[in-house]
Amino acid sequence: MRRSHLLTAAAALACALAPVAVYTAGAASEPGEAPAAPGPAAAPPAAPPAPGARKVIVDADMGELNDDAATLFMLAKDRGVHVLGVTTVSGNTWVEAGTAYSLRQLELIGRGDVPVVPGAGEPLFAWRQSRLPGQDALYGKSPYGGAFDTKRPPSYLKLPKPPYGGYPKARPRGGAAADFIVDQVRRHPGQVTVFAIGPATNLALAVRTHPEIVPMIKEVVYMGGAFDEPGNTTPAAEFNWWFDPESAKIALRTPFRRQTIVPNEAAMKVLYTKARYDRIVAGPQTPIKKMFKDLHGPEFARNPRYTTPVWDSLTAAVFLDPGVIKRAEERYVDVDATEGPNYGRSMGYATREFAAPRNPAGTRKATIVFEVDQERFWNLYVDRMTR
Ligand SMILES: [Ca+2]
């Protein structure tokens, strides 16, 4: 429910499009500032991942029980998956808020063992946010600006409102998200799948500063783009790649072994409804079920016809059960990073017409998932949310 989430707002430290960029890690810990955290008790520690579990990093613009959180739960509740860490990036939320929400929700599900590493607080392009008013005036105001719509908090312990259940007890891991990605890929060459389910800023920084890791990454799975349909943030652009088009362009043009994209074409058809909420809350009493009742219950009580896509959650499903994919296509992919009405537009060049070397210079192939099996998806989603 990325679109319905409250966020926070804006200081402008950003980086130029340089191979070695400086960025704000943002979430310095300030001991003693966290208010006492009454609220739901954390679950007991969960069982460790099974031997041979597939290794993933979840790079997210985390909210509270939003689509990023659901993705994390789907992966973290699966013993066949080893979540090496959550790296946070500004997008739906400012990185400070996303860091607090990641830490807190991991505690709530008994996965406080998973490190959370704050990453880029601003998109790569230095003037991204300060140019928004001009772009809005020329091309129309986006109905949803994510973090850009709110004031940036000074720390993950000083949000406008404490996270659900209170501020986390755990601290974020030191260092920066991009360095964490680099380090983990080096430790586990050929084994790590990166979920890029927010703006791709951390991933772009990682591959630009340490290109040697590129062939060592097993796969990148993105939520992003709207290839054959209008965008949902501007008529041209989907939110994640609109927020930081330069990073998305860098990431997509990186020669990863394999990249898979779940765009809006797949995501916008898969709607979370009261009937699906009811299936989850009918399940066993767990911290996740309590979160659903507390955070989503009031919305459905107000409006039983409320629906929303669950965007990022489809990436977890595609990874956990590739059989959920009904229609996918391989295309050369790119993002328009030219300022103008098409800023952030994703483009997919059909491999028939644009077979190499006719593809645009520097573009790489990706598998784009255009449709998923809805029943199979919801069965998986409900199963993971009720564990
Ligand atoms: Ca996201």
Summarize the topology.
Blueprint: E1 54-60, H1 67-76, E2 81-88, H2 95-108, E3 116-118, H3 132-139, H4 177-187, E4 192-196, H5 201-209, E5 217-223, H6 239-243, H7 245-252, E6 259-262, H8 264-267, E7 271-272, H9 274-281, H10 287-302, E8 308-309, H11 313-320, E9 325-335, E10 346-350, E11 364-372, H12 374-385
Parallel strand pairs: 1-2, 1-4, 2-3, 4-5, 5-6, 6-11
Antiparallel strand pairs: 7-8, 9-10, 9-11
The protein binds calcium ion.
Calcium ion binds next to helix 1.
Give a verbal description of the structure.
The protein is of the alpha/beta class and 387 residues long. The chain has a single domain, classed as Inosine-uridine Nucleoside N-ribohydrolase, Chain A (Alpha-Beta Complex). It is built from twelve helices and eleven strands. The strands form two sheets. The chain has a nine-stranded mixed β-sheet with strand order 3-2-1-4-5-6-11-9-10, with helices on both faces. Helix 1 links the parallel strand 1 (54-60) and strand 2 (81-88). Helix 4 packs across helix 5 (201-209), helix 5 crosses helix 7 (245-252) and helix 9 (274-281) runs antiparallel to helix 10 (287-302). The longest helix is centred in the C-terminal third of the chain and has 16 residues, at 287-302. The protein is globular, with a radius of gyration of 19 Å. It starts with 53 loop residues before the first strand and ends with a helix. It binds calcium ion. Calcium ion binds at residues 2, 60-61, 67-68, 91-92, 197-198, 312.
